[in-house]
Amino acid sequence: MNHHVLLLGAGIAVFCFLLNIIGAYGSRINSIGFAGILIMILTLDMQGDGWAVLIHGLYLLAGGLWYMMLSLALFGVRPYKIIQQALGDNIIAIGDYFGTRALFYDKGTDYDKIYKMLMEQQQQIQDKQTLLREMLFKSRNIVKESTVTGRTLLIIFVESIDLFEKSSATFYNYDAMHKRFDDSGILSSFQRMVYVIVDELHQIGLSVQSAAHQKHREN
């Protein structure tokens, strides 16, 4: 097909459309489409015919089957591992969001720059939460089985959403706060408190990913 320009162009258009449209069924399925597009790009200039094409296809099939069996084996041994990784990553991202908001307490800060950073981080967190919803509520091990780990992950997920929504819905007139309290030093104290929360969220996120218990620290 790569010897005929029109046929090649039509093939690329059709495969790109099909491999992208399956992303409508979820973020995880979208990764399959991405892998298909990557394989198509890597094999566009491949020269081969007859048995060479068949052997190449068998190699791709063998690699896909091996990865599928490996994934199923890992899921059978540690069914919550993938969700723990995604949930911990979400909590760490929320901590980063809090860290960005703490920059509002700096003197002479650029509000427009910080707001832009916050908007980007909000979108990233919402994408992570959408993926987590799919993973949690489409996984029978999490929703249907009454296990301590499953209930704990659901509770942590719900609480993390509540924390993020409350924080993203609350904003203050930081310019007025700086004009009134800059000389008092109280804004620096607020910023330090926020950074303590950020550190705790990072530690919790890492603990969720490693399935370790978070120890309470006195400050």
From TrEMBL:
Signal peptide: none annotated. InterPro entries: YccS_N. Residues 6-217 form the Integral membrane protein YccS N-terminal domain. Keywords: Membrane, Transmembrane, Transmembrane helix. It holds the Pfam family FUSC-like. The chain crosses the membrane at residues 6-25, 32-48, 54-77. This is YccS/YhfK family membrane protein. It comes from Niabella ginsengisoli. The lineage of its organism: Bacteria, Pseudomonadati, Bacteroidota, Chitinophagia, Chitinophagales.
